[in-house]
Design goal:
Elements lengths: L9 H6 L27 H5 L10 E4 L1 H9 L5 E6 L4 H10 L5 E2 L2 H8 L8 E5 L19 E5 L4 H13 L4 E5 L8 H7 L8 E4 L2 H10 L3 E5 L5 E2 L9 E6 L7 H5 L3 E4 L12 H14 L5
Parallel strand pairs: 2-3, 5-6, 5-10, 6-7, 8-10, 8-11, 9-11
Antiparallel strand pairs: 1-4, 2-4
């Protein structure tokens, strides 16, 4: 796939390093071995309250999210923590990024990320990814849809949608910046590593972005329970952009009017009603991918 060229500024160049440049030996103590960078701890951090990693940074935990972050050259990394039992899991990937893991006890990871966090002995302190524009995306191809989210604000839903998008080979997930959650530990955890492979593109005006997506060659399909036709009517001869609205309210009027077609998920009569937006996205992605032959 041919990528469009984008400008490279100082921030983007800095991301190539993969981690911060200021390095110093940590002091030894009962809970850690001096093998990583020294980090100044805030007053809240010293109290042991779970918190964000600092500034816009946040902690990712668990084997898959940590390895995915290490494998992404676009991901800036500040610290990598590992327990003795989990250290071997990340050594090779950390070496590829020229990052030295800090050997710590499980209690240190739980102090930083929260006692209920499932961390598998691994935690990585990361900066949010640099935003991408629609022009940064690959050329439109059949079998590789785009997802457009209209006012889906729950970070767990957005993360779960990103995970489904990665599984089904979607090009990107597009959101309106002021009506979407920021990149946080909650969103990244729900995405289970998908943030590292599937772009989350933020736009200022969703209707204008949909027009631009059409210009890229996509046919926009909105999902609505009130539609007359089902996903079986998806086109088979052009790339698809799926548009999903918030749970309950659905798509806004202008968003729906901007779609080329409105379809619904075929469901049996039931006592529940409808799927939540992340499940609906997974079903629609499956239908979109299987309606076409990937190029």
């Amino acid at each position: 796939m041919t990528k469009h060229t984008r400008s490279k500024g100082p921030a983007r160049d800095a991301r190539k390093t993969g981690h911060s440049n200021t390095m110093a030996r940590r002091e030894s103590g009962p809970d850690r071995t001096p093998v990583g960078p020294k980090v100044n701890r805030s007053k809240e951090d010293r109290k042991g309250s779970p918190k964000a990693a600092g500034g816009n940074r946040y902690w990712l935990t668990g084997t898959h999210p940590v390895l995915a972050a290490l494998a992404n050259p676009e991901r800036r990394i500040n610290r990598l923590l590992a327990t003795k039992n989990a250290l071997e899991t990340v050594l090779a990937a950390a070496e590829q990024r020229d990052i030295t893991p800090e050997l710590v006890e499980r209690s240190e990871i739980e102090r930083l990320t929260g006692p209920d966090e499932v961390h598998q002995g691994l935690a990585i302190d990361v900066f949010p990814l640099e935003p991408l524009a629609l022009t940064d995306l690959p050329d439109a191809q059949q079998g590789h849809p785009i997802l457009i989210l209209d006012q889906v604000t729950d970070p767990r839903n957005v993360g779960a949608i990103l995970r489904s998008a990665a599984v089904f080979g979607a090009v990107a997930v597009v959101v309106q910046d002021r009506h979407a959650p920021p990149e946080t530990a909650v969103l990244a955890k729900a995405a289970s590593g998908a943030l590292e492979t599937t772009p989350l593109v933020r736009v200022g005006n969703l209707a204008r972005a949909m027009a631009d997506i059409k210009q890229l060659g996509y046919w926009t399909v909105g999902l609505s329970g009130a539609a007359q036709e089902t996903l079986s009517a998806l086109p088979t001869d052009r790339p698809i952009a799926l548009v999903l609205g918030a749970e309950g309210d659905g798509m806004r009027r202008l968003t729906e009017e901007a779609c080329d077609k409105i379809l619904k998920i075929a469901m049996r009569p039931n006592a529940v009603g409808s799927l939540n937006v992340s499940n609906a996205a997974a079903v629609a992605l499956f239908a979109a991918v299987n309606s076409q032959t990937p190029q």
